[in-house]
Design a protein that fits this description.
With 405 residues, the chain is mainly beta. The chain is built from six helices and 24 strands.
């Protein structure tokens, strides 16, 4: 049993936001159990993670105080597999430190018997049945492509969400989504569950990671491995591109988690439409996007964690015109900017088709371009001459219902 205790202060945090507590894992170890204890009553938040000799083995941030890793299983957020002998490190993030500091105690136990470690993971519910799928919406598309409805930002029990991967994907079916990016905070432990869930529920599942720091969050999309959130955002972008994925700036204007990092190069995507756009009459997110770079492809994300705390899954809906129905096709459509965003999956949609702007199910709304209102929509499907720049569908009171770059 390894035991650590002490007190972290603001001065500790000023030196570095990370602390590493060493744990020696001998050959033949079948499991590692770590427990962190500290007083949260004064606002302290300590994040928890783990590094093995070969690198990343898991992260749960402030959502958990303990984890177990064995060859066959692990606490959500952590990677199961053989425990390589040698020096391991329990990684502590000093996320919030009260003015008078915080006492902590951490124990790390290695064992040659899995049974000695107790439960290997949180109790998970049974895999839910496959819900009845709602009919797909068929929108005007180019030959060989179709518009797919999805959400690029959602969480599970692998970070701070409440649903298992199967539960989340079953919810996506009920919400009528064709694809979903699962983007747990600073971990990729959920990626291993995605292929089976995609096959069972008939939803395209895009591996993702929400790279989460004090200075802002970014969505790393694609099967690109773990992105080290301790590095600089330029390093996240480089690593994502090397893996063939895409990086998005998430919720750039969202109170204490707004984007404040500087970058040498800008990522290709920005989560323009997020649940924190509380009043759709506001133009603040659009003003930020135009100042950041209007060539960046705007996308949407619900940031789903649990019922009642965020927007419902799929609100907003990001439509991507795709040449196939696999994760690579979603990435290709995003990369090419074949994107439209709507407030709801079944609500008004504005998209580009054959050089025109097409408004779907938007009777009575106002087509608004970069220079102001252009026309009032009449009928369930209306075409307007295409024009450069972003366009929106607005309610008479100015609330945005759909957007296309």
């Amino acid at each position: 049993m390894n035991e650590f205790s002490g007190r972290w202060t603001l001065q500790t945090r000023f030196v570095s936001p990370w602390r590493y507590l060493p744990v020696e894992v001998p050959a033949g170890t079948c499991g590692l159990r770590v427990e962190l204890d500290y007083d949260r009553s004064q606002g302290a938040v300590l994040d928890l993670g783990c590094l093995g000799p070969a690198g990343f083995r898991g992260w749960s941030g402030g959502a958990r105080r303990s984890f177990v890793i064995t060859p066959e299983g692990a606490t959500p957020g952590y990677l199961p597999g053989e425990l390589q002998p040698g020096p391991w490190q329990v990684m502590i993030g000093l996320h919030r430190i009260p003015s008078d500091g915080v006492d902590y105690r951490l124990t790390a136990e290695v064992s040659g018997s899995i049974g000695q470690l107790g439960p290997q993971r949180d109790e998970l519910p049974d895999v839910p049945p496959v819900p009845e799928r709602r009919p797909r919406r068929v929108l005007p598309s180019s030959d060989g492509r179709r518009w797919l409805a999805g959400d690029l930002h959602a969480h599970t029990v692998h970070s701070d969400g409440v649903l298992s991967v199967p539960e989340l994907v079953a919810l996506a079916v009920r919400r009528g989504l064709d694809y979903l990016a699962v983007t747990d905070h600073n971990t990729v432990s959920h990626h291993a569950e995605l292929p089976a869930a995609a096959k069972r529920y008939g939803v395209i599942l895009l591996p993702g990671q929400e790279v989460t720091t004090d200075g802002g969050h970014a969505g790393a999309l694609g099967d690109i491995g773990w992105i080290d959130f301790r590095g600089e955002p330029d390093e996240w972008l480089d690593a994502t591109e090397r893996g063939g994925g895409l990086l998005s700036i998430n919720h750039p204007i969202a109170g204490p988690v707004s984007w404040t990092h500087r970058m040498r190069r800008l990522p290709p995507l920005v989560e323009l439409w997020h649940w924190s756009w509380l009043d759709l009459r506001w133009t603040t997110p659009i003003a930020w996007w135009l100042a950041w770079d209007p060539a960046t492809v705007p996308v949407g994300g619900s940031d789903w964690h649990r019922e009642g705390s965020d927007a419902p899954l799929g609100q907003p809906t990001t439509w991507v015109e795709c040449a196939g129905e696999e994760p690579a096709a979603i990435l290709d459509g995003l990369r090419a900017g074949r994107v439209a965003i709507s407030a709801h999956r079944d609500g008004p949609v504005l998209l580009r088709h054959d050089g025109d702007l097409v408004a779907i199910d938007a009777d009575g709304l106002i087509l608004y371009g970069p220079h102001g209102p252009r026309a009032r929509v009449s009928g369930d499907r209306a075409r307007f001459p295409g024009a450069p720049g972003y366009h929106r569908l607005l309610e008479p009171d100015g609330a945005t219902r759909a957007l296309v770059p």
